[in-house]
Amino acid sequence: MRMSANELLGQLLDSGTFVSWDRPPVEPPITPRYRQELVDAAVRAGTDESVLTGEGLLRGRRVAVIACEFAFLAGSIGVAAAERIVSAVERATELGLPLIASPTSGGTRMQEGTVAFVQMVKIAGAVTVHKAAGYPYLVYLRDPTMGGVFASWGSLGHITFAAPGALIGFLGPRVYEALYGKPFPPGVQTAENLYRNGVIDGVVPVEVFRRIAHRALSVASGTVMPVSAEPGWAAPVLSPVSAANPAASAWDSVLSTRRPGRPGIRDLLRHVTHRVPLSGTGQGESDRTVVLALARFGGQPCVVFGHDRSGQRGEHTMGPAALREARRAMALAQELRLPLVLVIDTVGAALSKEAEERGLAPEIARCLADLVTLDTPTVSILLGQGTGGGALALLPADRVLAAGHGWLAPLPPEGASAIVFRDTEHAPELADAQGIRAIDLHRDGVVDRIVGEYPDAAVEPVAFARRVVLAVTEELAALRATAPAELRALRRVRYRRIGLTGVVY
Fold first, then answer.
1. 16 CB contacts (<8 Å, ≥6 apart)?
2. pLDDT computed for residue 242 by the predictor
3. Residue 375, C-beta contacts closer than 8 angstroms, at least 6 positions apart
4. d(Cα 304, Cα 326) in Å, to the nearest integer?
């Protein structure tokens, strides 16, 4: 049994809080036969159109909602339904409310022809204006969501989840078979398959989506919460000794960052709150060597993106999709006006035919360009290994932190040794000579702050992760007071000066 619009609203919103915004549907010129179809559809569905709009409370937070009703002419969207949707989006924007949309539709309404098809343009336009104003747009796809609905407002969410088993796609299976004389490949147009391929962020029942939406809206609100109000927050373990050990060689740091027990981005996220893991680029790509999430660091809301050391094995390292997912994180931060936290911990970008052909190098360049011009505070953390362009792509932030043993180099030391000496035995020597250590990067103005390891993050993973989270929290709090134009100007000056200390023209 498909969930009706009213059932969806009843499970998504706090009980008894929904208030309808709907007026009687507009009526474009229609035939008597079509008018009778509308009358019959209203009787079957118990609604006056294929969509309901209004507002309510979600765990006490005021939200605007749009929900399709599939029982009304298969949830199809014509002029009246589109006008209702656009009016609701515009009202949500005027009121400054986050908007949650839950489509379920066979697509545009065939009875109204091309004019119904073109309605998707004005719906997409209204949603885009809403997002440009800085207000969240969350999408929950139900079974089925097809055609122009999926190809417009169903695919524009800041975050997009779907109901288990939902049929989701562009071209309907029956249409495909009629056009091409063979069935559509099975298992493609399912919520689960789209999640695996990075088109949507997850597959959950509505009661779970309600919790996800609550956490996402808490972060997207931009409201800072005191640390004392953060559930489960434990104060970090601090040490009075120096954060960096100048006696440790660069090679010591390299070996330390390669230890199996060293904490990574997932360990950091265990010590933040309101986590909403997201997945993929939203454009049909997913790379399991990176992590994307909304979260609060000690009460500071932000978008988090970074390398996942646990997902990197042998030649399986970050590819172009990972960098496109990084750019999605940057766009999310920009649209939601949230700070961006980036975690660097990579053995390097993928070296493969596929990576070259899918544009690895151009994606590194685009990440750099996006980051240095972003209109929101940015903090980058050199958590462990920082190898090559894959690390550089996440580096140029307003504030750069480094773990005591973190390091940054154009190649792993073994690779540099192979170029200079045609062997790998000189790797320790080159590591020392290249100034890759956190303490060297701090001296050269690449790193602003070092988070200590006492003596090594691998032997104190919880304490170290908490120290990093606290350091990020402090940096985010300090950056919030700086205007976007000033952030961009300071960022430009910062990276313009790197390498010029002591240089005489």
1. none
2. 45
3. 334, 484, 487, 488
4. 9
Q: For residues 116 and 79, what is the distance between their CA atoms, to the nearest angstrom?
A: 6
Overall average pLDDT of the 220-231 stretch: 76
Integer angstrom CA distances of residue 395 from 122, 344, 386, 438: 39, 8, 9, 13
Residue 396 has pLDDT above 80, yes or no: yes
Dihedral sign, Cα of residue 241, residue 246, residue 247, residue 250: positive
Distance, CA of 341 to CA of 301 (rounded, Å): 10
Cα gap 212→185, rounded to integer Å: 32
Residue 240 has pLDDT above 50, yes or no: no
DSSP output for 306-347: EE-GGG-BTTB-B-HHHHHHHHHHHHHHHHHT--EEEEEEES
Q: What mean pLDDT do residues 33-46 have?
A: 96
User: Taking residues 160-185, what's their average pLDDT?
Assistant: 91
DSSP per-residue codes, 265-285:
HHHHHTTSEEEEEE-S-SSS-
Decide: helix, strand or coil at residue 429: helix
What is the arithmetic mean of pLDDT over 146-164? 96
* pLDDT tens digit sequence for 105-133: 999 999 999 999 999 999 999 999 999 99
The Cα 438–Cα 505 span in angstroms is 28
Global model pTM greater than 0.90 = yes
- H or E, element range at 131: helix 114-132
How far is residue 24's CA from residue 4's CA, in Å, rounded to a whole number?
20
Q: Using CA atoms, how far apart are residues 169 and 189, in angstroms rounded to an integer?
A: 5
Q: Quick check: helix, strand or coil at residue 57? A: strand
Phi, psi of 161 (to 5 degrees): -120, 165
- pLDDT computed for residue 434 by the predictor: 92
pLDDT tens digits, residue range 456-485? 999 999 999 999 999 999 999 999 989 989
Block residue for tokens 């030649």: 315
Does the structure show a pLDDT above 70 at 500?
A: yes
Helix (H, G, I), strand (E, B) or coil at 29: coil
